[in-house]
Amino acid sequence: EEIEGYIEACTAEFWRYFAQKYNGYVGEDLTSSVTSDGERIFTVAVECTINAGSSFTCRRHFTIDKKTGEIVTFERLFREGSGYREAISAEIGRQIEERVERGDFYYGYGIFTSPVDLEMAFKAIDGQDFYFDEEGRLVIVFEEGEIAPNNMGMPTFVIPARVTAPSAAEGGLLEGGEV
């Protein structure tokens, strides 16, 4: 039901563009792919690209815990009150600064730091998409244009186990669970 709801929202956005903005000159590509299929989890990514002169892409990962049959929520990965949001946000901030030094662009850093530019777009994680990579590490995904220019796509940040382990839920997917 949750996946169907996301697909319906993507389709509604397409029809909004079709009817109001581009007089019918718009296309939508809606695809899905399996991101991981391990012993404990199954993840499918649903991606929607709307083409109207230029394009933008939205993607959402749905991770299913094979043990329970439920879609995994971000909050369920961690112990309540463990400070996981602060720890992960600090790690993403560190990675952004590292990337800016290499030449990437993020709002609030590098060329985007003058008073007339956008304020720092990334302050803390708040409802971002996520999935697990092939090594079982948590990957945080930001929407196109959310913290960086659209031409950078959907920035992703691999969160090392040293950051997630101290706050992982007991017996959960981050604490030695077979991903």
What is the strand and helix layout of this fold?
Blueprint (H helix, E strand, L loop, with lengths): L1 H20 L5 E11 L3 E12 L1 E12 L4 E2 L12 H19 L26 E4 L5 E4 L14 E4 L1 H4 L15
Antiparallel strand pairs: 1-2, 2-3, 3-4, 5-6, 6-7
Folded structure, characterized:
With 179 residues, this protein is α+β, with helices and mostly antiparallel strands. It is 24% helix and 27% strand. It is built from 3 helices and 7 strands. Strands 1-2-3-4 form a 4-stranded antiparallel β-sheet, with helices on one face. A hairpin with a 1-residue loop joins strand 2 and strand 3 (54-65). The protein is globular. The model is unreliable at 114-118 (pLDDT under 50).
Major β-sheet, in short? 4 strands, antiparallel
Sequence stretches where pLDDT stays below 50 over 5 or more residues: 114-118
Helix run count = 3
Spatial separation of the terminal alpha carbons: 23 Å
Order of helices and strands: HEEEEHEEEH
- Please give the number of β-strands: 7
Radius of gyration, taken over Cα atoms and rounded to an integer in Å: 18 Å
Placed side by side, the strands forming the largest sheet appear as: 1-2-3-4
Q: Which descriptor suits the 3D outline? A: globular
Given the helix and strand composition, which structural class is it? alpha+beta
What is the residue-mean pLDDT, rounded to a whole number? 83
Helix content: 10-25%
Name the beta content range.
25-35%
